[in-house]
Specification:
The chain is α+β, with helices and mostly antiparallel strands. It is 30% helix and 33% strand. The relative contact order is 0.09.
Length: 372
C-alpha cells in the first residue's frame, strides 16, 4: 500500500494511524464520539479495523501480517488517543482463513461490559466485549443519518435492527417505527437504547404559523373567523407532538376559541379555526343638550329683563352676557351637557397575537380586527 519501499515498523503504523484520525476529524460531526478510525485498505492499512467508542478503542487484525503487529498497533493507538482501554475483537470467522484463532483480548487498560457513546446526537450503549462486530455497526453511522434525512413521516420497519441504530434515527422523523431482531440479547439492547433516548426522540419538532382572514370588521353580536395553519419546518421533518394554540389582544367584551384547540402537523401541516365573537350590547348613548340649549337663553332673558328696563347704562354689559349664554347653549346642543340622548358610533382596530406552543418551542403571528 505504498509507492515506496520502506520498513514496516512502529513508525510506519504510527504515521498511518495519525493520518487516519486526522481525516476523521474533518468528516465526523461533533455530535458523535463513536466512529470508525481505520477501515482497512481505505486507510492504507489492509486487514486492520479500529473503532473508537468515546474513551475506548476496539481493533481487529484480520490477517497474519496485521495480527503479528497488533502489539505495536496497540502501542501507537495508546500514544495517539490515550484511551482508557483497548480490546482486540478477533473473534470474527474470517480469521480462520488465515489459520488464526478466534479470540477476544484486552490489549491495554480496562474495558467495561457496556460503554455509553454518542452517535448522531443519540446515546447508545455498546458491548465491546460481546457485542456484534466491535460492539455497534459503526460503519453504518453515516447511513443512519442518511436514512433519517430521507424519511418523510409514515411508518418505518427496521429489520435485523441489532442495537437499534436505524430505528432510533428514524423515530424522530416517522410516525411509528418497528424494530425486529431474532436475538433476544440484541432486542434487550435496543429496548435499553430506546429508553435512554426517549426524551431526545420525543423532543418537540419545529413549526411555523400562518393565518388567513386578517383585516375583518366585527360588529356587536357578530363573529369573525380566521384559519390558522401549523406547518412542520423544515420540510421533511416530523412534528409528532401537539401544538397548542392561544390568542391575546382581544377587544373588550369579545371572546375567542380554537377548533380544535391543539393540532399535530406530523410530516406536513394541520389547521384550526379561530372564532372571535363580540357580545350583543346596546348602543352607547349620551345627553344631546337640547333642553339646556333652549333653557339657557330663556333664563338669561328672564334674569336680565329688569336690568335692561331699570339701568339703561348697563345695556351693553347685559347684551354681552346674553350673547355668551346663547353661544353656550349652542355648544351644549352640539356636544351634549345633559337633557336628551344621541347615539355615539365608535370604531377601533385591534391586533390579535396568535401563539402556538409545543413543549419549549413557541411561535407567534398577528392579525388585525376592526370593531365597529
Amino acid at each position: 500500500m505504498s509507492q515506496h519501499v520502506g520498513e514496516i515498523g512502529r513508525d510506519f503504523y504510527l504515521a498511518r494511524l495519525r493520518a487516519a484520525e486526522c481525516h476523521r476529524r474533518t468528516v465526523v460531526h461533533h455530535d458523535s464520539d463513536a466512529y470508525r478510525v481505520v477501515h482497512g485498505e481505505a486507510d492504507l492499512l489492509p486487514a486492520l479495523v479500529v473503532d473508537r467508542y468515546g474513551d475506548y478503542l476496539a481493533m481487529q487484525t484480520l490477517d497474519q501480517g496485521m495480527d503479528a503487529a497488533k502489539s505495536e498497533i496497540a502501542s501507537c493507538l495508546t500514544e495517539i488517543f490515550e484511551p482508557r482501554g483497548i480490546v482486540a475483537r478477533n473473534d470474527v470467522a474470517v480469521r480462520t482463513k488465515e489459520q488464526l484463532p478466534l479470540e477476544t483480548a484486552v490489549m491495554a487498560g480496562e474495558v467495561p461490559g457496556a460503554v455509553a457513546v454518542r452517535i448522531n446526537g443519540l446515546t447508545m450503549h455498546a458491548d465491546l466485549l460481546h457485542g456484534q462486530k466491535t460492539g455497534i455497526f459503526l460503519d453504518q453511522r453515516e447511513n443512519y443519518r442518511a436514512a433519517a434525512h430521507y424519511a418523510r413521516g409514515g411508518k418505518a420497519l427496521d429489520c435485523f435492527t441489532s442495537t437499534g441504530g436505524f430505528a432510533l434515527q428514524l423515530a424522530a422523523k416517522c410516525q411509528s417505527v418497528e424494530a425486529v431482531d431474532s436475538s433476544s440479547n440484541l432486542s434487550a439492547a435496543t429496548t435499553y437504547n430506546w429508553t435512554v433516548n426517549a426524551a431526545a426522540i420525543a423532543a418537540p419538532g419545529d413549526f411555523a404559523l400562518s393565518v388567513r382572514g386578517s383585516g375583518q370588521t366585527l360588529a356587536a353580536g357578530g363573529e369573525a373567523q380566521y384559519t390558522v395553519t401549523v406547518s412542520t419546518t423544515p420540510a421533511g421533518d416530523v412534528c409528532n407532538n401537539p401544538v397548542t394554540l392561544s390568542v391575546k389582544g382581544l377587544p373588550p367584551g369579545a371572546t375567542a376559541g380554537f377548533s380544535p384547540a391543539a393540532v399535530t402537523p406530523g410530516a406536513g401541516s394541520a389547521t384550526s379555526t379561530l372564532t372571535v365573537q363580540m357580545a350583543a350590547t346596546s348602543a352607547k348613548l349620551r345627553p344631546d343638550g337640547g333642553g339646556w340649549a333652549l333653557a339657557l337663553p330663556m333664563l338669561a332673558v328672564i334674569l336680565l329683563a329688569p336690568t335692561r328696563r331699570g339701568q339703561k347704562r348697563k345695556s351693553h354689559n347685559a347684551f354681552m352676557i346674553l350673547f355668551c349664554l346663547l353661544i353656550l347653549g349652542a355648544v351644549c346642543a352640539t356636544v351634549g351637557c345633559g337633557g336628551g340622548f344621541a347615539v355615539t358610533p365608535s370604531s377601533s382596530s385591534y391586533t390579535l397575537t396568535i401563539t402556538g406552543t409545543n413543549g419549549s418551542v413557541n411561535h407567534s403571528t398577528t392579525v388585525t380586527l376592526a370593531v365597529k
